[in-house]
Design a protein that fits this description.
The complex is a heterodimer. Chain A contains 5 helices and 3 strands. By secondary structure, chain A is an alpha+beta fold. Chain A has a single domain, classed as Sufe protein. Chain: A (Alpha-Beta Complex). In chain B, the strands form 5 sheets. In chain B, strands 4-10-9-8-7-5-6 form a 7-stranded mixed beta sheet, sandwiched between helices. In chain B, strands 13-14-17-16 form a 4-stranded antiparallel beta sheet, covered by helices on one side. Chain B has 2 domains: 5-30 and 300-408, Aspartate Aminotransferase, domain 1; 44-297, Aspartate Aminotransferase, domain 2. Classes of the chains: A alpha+beta, B alpha/beta.
Chain lengths: 144, 410
Amino acid sequence: MNDLINDLYQEIILDHGREPRNFGECEPHNKSADGHNPLCGDSLKLTFLLNDQNIIEDIKFTGEGCAISLASASLMTEKLKGKKIEVAEEIFKDFTNLVSGSDEDLKVLNEEDSLYALKGVGGFPMRVKCATMAWHAFNQALKD
Amino acid sequence: MDNSKTLNLNVRKDFPILSKKILEKKDLIYFDTAASAQKPNTVIDETNDFYKNHYSNVSRGVHTLSVESTFRYEDARKKVQKFLNARSENEIIFTKSATEGINLVAQSFYEKFMQKGDEVILSLIEHHSNLIPWFFLRDKYGVVLKFANIQSSGEIDIDHFNSLFTNKTKIVSLTHLSNVFGTELNEKAISICKDKNVPILLDGCQSAAHLKIDVQKLGCDFFVFSGHKTYGPAGIGVLYGTENLLSEMPPYQGGGGMIGDVSLEGASYAELPAKYEAGTPPLVEAHGLGIAIDYMNKIGLDNIIEHENEITKYAFNKLDEIDFIEIHGGDNKRNSIISFNIKNVHSHEVSSFLDVEGIAIRAGHHCCQPLMKHLGVNSTARLSFGVYNSLEEVDKFVIALHKCKEFFNK
């Protein structure tokens, strides 16, 4: 099997794509945003609860999409749950660099992170949007 | 499966990009002609030659290069006229795209013939380019849009279509060949429009290079297609319209080249076709389209159609045998396009997997979101064929599909 495909579809991606974690709507929540990829029609809704110490207490998503977009959203919720917002923002920046094949050094993510499994997306430039859809929704929710 | 190989072997070499290796080792199998066709050497060379040896603006200067450019531009119009069997060159308007052609008709036709509350009939299978220009009329002027249903075969439900007409119906706009199903429009739809004396626009983006087009025989009032889907350059489109309607409708855009006489108080407009061609046109692209038409004529449209029908039928039967494949639409009147899904695998995964095998297919909603909603899918994978494809490529594709299914369901 081709290396590029194996890099793109690591076991953890296929697993989270088939059975996304934290799938549903956060109740109660005080932040939400929709992610949408108009070029392919994939979409999701992200909801989370930010407590008074700026910690993400709970975070969930619903939506439909390809394995990459679902796995990315699923892994994102796992990673961000319990994180302070400042840390989450750093992770967002790192993740965007990781999947877009940017040379910039990662500050908080490393090879041990499950999110690192999405690095293979860099070999498929047209799929970067699939991997970042949930993250852009998260970023949008913070701004709203 | 041997019959159509000769034609394939003869033309593949005409397309230099087809010798490209994907990821440095895989032979390219290009199954995305419905998105855009590849270009033969003649189109590439002739457009180069235009810039190198003949280029200037058209219809303006009197010097040698201006004459050479104008000759090529107008010669392309003649070729398009013959290609569509239009009555006159005045009925051939060059645009930048088929999309621009539909926008032109929507705007100018409305201005001359319609008012608030008037109705336009479209269908559920239309491409966004044959929806949004009409949405503009609905949003800006209160025009009412009606949408014909489709049958499971992918064809328009003719009885439902017929029932949508009222005395306020002013124009109908339908796809001639569905970019999702590959189904050809039932001719009855056109004859119904004729009976009711309502003009009809045909979106010929997918049909122009895959069916024999005769606008007089078809009886349509408008026909649009794009250069890039007919083996020509991107940036050039064609609008055919009957001389009657084009004469009565007002110009779409104002600018140089479309005027009769201008003073500070006002202007008169040029005769057809210049009236609708404001600004410097995509002249090299128009020439390239003319060369692409020459190319198709040289192979023979009948040969092209026979070849593509054979591949389409072959691929349809192969896919139909596979239990994990769901094909959208029926096998009736299907031409050069097949949309499908692998059960439980998103079309993106299918497309990325095939990509590393050297196979280019389209995945997504195909600019037909209302149709995707109707089908109850988020996206489909689409195969589409051109003159350069072969049955062996279909065989390789089917093997890759099985590998793909195995990979994602392991």
